[in-house]
Amino acid sequence: MALRVIIVGGSIAGLTLAHSLRACHIDYLVLEAKADIAPAVGASIGILPNGARILDQLGIWPAIGQHIAPLHQSFVWSSAGRLIVRSDHPRLIHERHAYPFAFLDRRILLKILYEQLGLQQERVHLNKRVVRVGHVADGVVAHCEDGSVFAGDLVVGADGVRSTVLQEMRRQNAKSILDVGHRGSAMQSEYSCLFGISNPVPGLHAGDGHFTYAKGYSTLTVVGKDDRVFWFLFTKMSQSYDADHIPRFTEEDLQRHVARYGHVPISDTVPLSAVSERIQAGSLHALEEAFAPVWTVDRIACVGDAIHKMTPNIGQGGNSAIETVAALANHLASLRRKTPDRAPSLTELKTCLQTWQTERHDRAHKVWSAANAATRMEAGDTLYHRIIGQYMLPYLGSYLTDGMSELIKGAEKLDFLPVPARSLAGSIPYTSEGATSEMEVGMGRAWFRWMWVAVLVGAVWRLCVVCLVGADVLQCGIF
């Protein structure tokens, strides 16, 4: 019997993996703990070109396109409502890589992913909370809370940051996990985030993105289709928490949070209170940050937030999960071609999965690190971060856009499917693989050199203005 994969979690990562396995003719099923595959929990998801291209390969992008308004420009504001910089960065990324920055309800994306499975929706089993994973002589079994058991050759945990599958993998193979040499980071939480979706707000327009940088907090606001407002309030908590002590917040906590930060400017004319008054759905959560050093042991693997949980500030959490899934599907498709009429042996499967982690690890870690660094820069975590965010940003110009392009163009794709014609229309081509070429390395180094030249010039100029003319003139915007 050929390879069979049990996907634990009907998440964006889990359902994208289901589509990918269907496309390469690998048997699968999905076990989802909840009763609803697309619950209305008030969360949003940002789709960037590196994730969009993979979804387009799977034929899903056209349906997503009906629910988005591409971003065209962004504004960065200070805590006093002063414009730090306006940028065409989103439009330029769209032109370069053929897909836009876009936001939509997470529920809508999950619904699209589920419905596009067509007749294979029957392979998605709801109300199946996996509580234990066990190895047997020639495979692996997933035990559910209701007593049902599902057998296969591989279990993939796409069950989120508190992954049962990852915990099972660690419990069964503690020594193997401790002995590996991959970089990792234990789970911690230093920031909270109020996620909100609001009805249209006067002064906020579709296609615009707004950021507010301050000391101890920041905001991100994206105006989507029909002027719906997707917004985030990031705040630094009073302490850093480890995995066992991460706080959970109540509705009362949320209301106090909104009241405390209602004065914060979303733009020069719109305060946070104007957005929160029109809220449709929202929730307050501590933001977990973790990067697992081991993604796979024997017949178990994990994807998405289970292994690289990042902060949402650069919108790469879901997109990075999609890339990791695509990379895994590529390796499983290759394994299936080698064993078309039988299930792979444990040795063959382990080699496949370990190669997948090795090849995917560094890029995933790079994105994870960038996201978490952005959170601290935007919320002015240290004097260094505040200087960059408040004073140096206007001088970075196209360098930030070039840096994002470097990240996007090296994205993973599904090797067993053709690239969409749409993806070839951008002015900067994607590399054929997720690996970074020597040319990219050279360009990346040049980008950093020029970035810091611009930073230094800008910082020295502003310092001279303050010393010779006065800070008041600087605040007027003349310099």
Looking at this protein, list some descriptive labels:
15 helices, 6-stranded mixed sheet, 24% strand, 479 residues, 8-stranded mixed sheet
Describe the protein in words:
The protein has 479 residues and is of the alpha/beta class. α10 (317-338) runs antiparallel to α11 (346-378). Helices cover 39% and strands 24% of the residues. It folds into two domains: 4-389, FAD/NAD(P)-binding domain; 390-475. The chain is built from 15 helices and 19 strands. It has helices at residues 12-23, 49-57, 61-65, 89-97, 106-115, 164-172, 174-179, 251-261, 272-276, 317-338, 346-378, 383-392, 398-409, 438-468, 471-475, and strands spanning 4-8, 27-31, 44-47, 73-78, 83-87, 102-105, 124-125, 130-136, 139-144, 149-152, 154-157, 185-198, 208-213, 217-223, 229-242, 279-291, 296-297, 300-302, 308-309. It is globular. The chain crosses the membrane at residues 450-474.
Summarize, please.
The longest helix is centred in the C-terminal third of the chain and has 33 residues, at 346-378. 39% of the residues lie in helices and 24% in strands.
CATH superfamily of the largest domain: FAD/NAD(P)-binding domain
Instruction: Name the helicity range.
Output: 25-40%
Distance between the termini: 70 Å
Structural class: alpha/beta
The biggest beta sheet is recorded as: 8 strands, mixed
Could you tell me the CATH topology label of the largest domain. FAD/NAD(P)-binding domain
Principal-axes shape call: globular
Q: How large is the radius of gyration?
A: 23 Å
The low-confidence parts are: 433-455, 471-479
Signal peptide: 1-18
Domain FAD-binding: 4-368
Protein name: FAD/NAD(P)-binding domain-containing protein
GO molecular function, one term: monooxygenase activity
